[in-house]
Amino acid sequence: MGKIKVTTCEIEGLYEIEPAVFGDARGYFMETYNYNDFKEAGIAVQFVQDNQSASKKGVLRGLHFQIHYPQDKLVRVIRGEVFDVAVDLRRGSQTYGKWHGVLLSEENKKQFFIPKDFAHGFVVLSDYAEFAYKCSDFYHPNDEGGLIYNDPDIGVAWPVPEGAQLLMAEKDKHWGSFKEYTKKYRQ
């Protein structure tokens, strides 16, 4: 292996990944994904779709999930800095409803692996950010679900300065609570 450093998180299945970065006077090179290296690290997932978004400071996207077609995701920041969050929605998990957050930036070049059945979201901390991610299943627009970002039962500690204005899609302002999700999908 040696090309990536994989760190487990307090929630089983989540991994922070640091690729080996080779730099010189010209700049740098790194492999952002190699199936064999990831498989050796215990992440044997095949990805079928790559996505990229651009956002300005204060944009909060999430907390999203696919209901019937869940996706594993490998996320990273190409430019800027975001605080990325995953919430455990796996049935029977000892960490059901718990969250983990990681700072992803163009400087630290970290990646975050989020398995199926997690809600996912991020907030942009820099003036501008480009966010890229791989998915193990295709996006199904009629299968989209979400949780409200500030649900007190989840308690995500978003690093947003007090009084800062968050910018969100209309749908992200109106997702249901964790209790509503549990009642609807996990009875």
What does this protein look like?
The protein contains 2 helices and 13 strands. It has helices spanning 35-40, 178-185, and strands spanning 4-8, 15-19, 21-24, 27-30, 49-56, 60-66, 73-79, 81-88, 99-105, 111-114, 118-124, 128-135, 144-146. The strands form 3 sheets. Strands 1-2-10-7-12-5 form a 6-stranded antiparallel beta sheet, with no helix packed on it. Strands 9-8-11-6-13 form a 5-stranded antiparallel beta sheet, with no helix packed on it. Helix content is 7%, strand content 41%. The protein has 187 residues and is mainly beta. It is globular and about 55 Å long. The termini are far apart.
pLDDT < 50 stretches? none
Q: DSSP strand (E) fraction?
A: 35-45%
> How far is the first residue's CA from the last residue's CA?
42 Å
Q: Helical stretch count?
A: 2
N-to-C SSE string, H for helix and E for strand? EEEEHEEEEEEEEEH
Instruction: Work out the radius of gyration.
Output: 16 Å
Strand order of the largest sheet: 1-2-10-7-12-5
Shape: globular
Fraction of helical residues: under 10%
Major beta-sheet overview: 6 strands, antiparallel
| Total E-strand runs | 13
Mean pLDDT: 94
Helix/strand-derived category reads mainly beta
